[in-house]
Design goal:
Layout: E1 3-8, E2 14-26, E3 31-39, H1 42-46, E4 53-60, H2 73-81, E5 85-89, E6 96-101, E7 109-110
Length: about 110
């Protein structure tokens, strides 16, 4: 299971394969941290090539994506792709001038 989405790194390399690398779940406080590793492509990941990028995501409270009966990796990948809209603030007026998507993975393709 993974997500396919192109990302150009600061060094100019374009990677496109992102896989959950590590999770830390605090059931008592309903918190989860997920580390997503970015690889050049699926083939390099399968060959054991080192990761090239890391994305950290955290959820807690009502955003906690798991249930008491647990959850599946597929459900966690779905949560990773959920849309996150943030307000765009006009630098001149300080007013909200609209909203934009803040989640890089929102349009990623599933590789299940």
């Amino acid at each position: 299971m993974a997500l396919i989405k192109q990302k150009k790194l600061n060094n100019g390399v374009v990677i496109d394969y992102f896989k959950i690398y590590r999770t830390n779940i605090d059931w008592h406080n309903k918190q989860i941290s997920v580390v997503i590793a970015g690889f050049l492509n699926k083939e390099s990941r399968m060959e054991g090539v080192e990761l090239m990028d890391v994305v950290n995501l955290n959820w807690s409270g009502t955003e906690f994506p798991l249930t008491e009966s647990g959850g599946t990796l597929e459900e966690l990948y779905t949560k990773i792709k959920e849309s996150k809209m943030i307000d765009v603030i006009d630098e001149t007026t300080g007013e909200v001038s609209g909203q934009e998507e803040s989640n890089f993975f929102v349009d990623a393709v599933d590789d299940f």
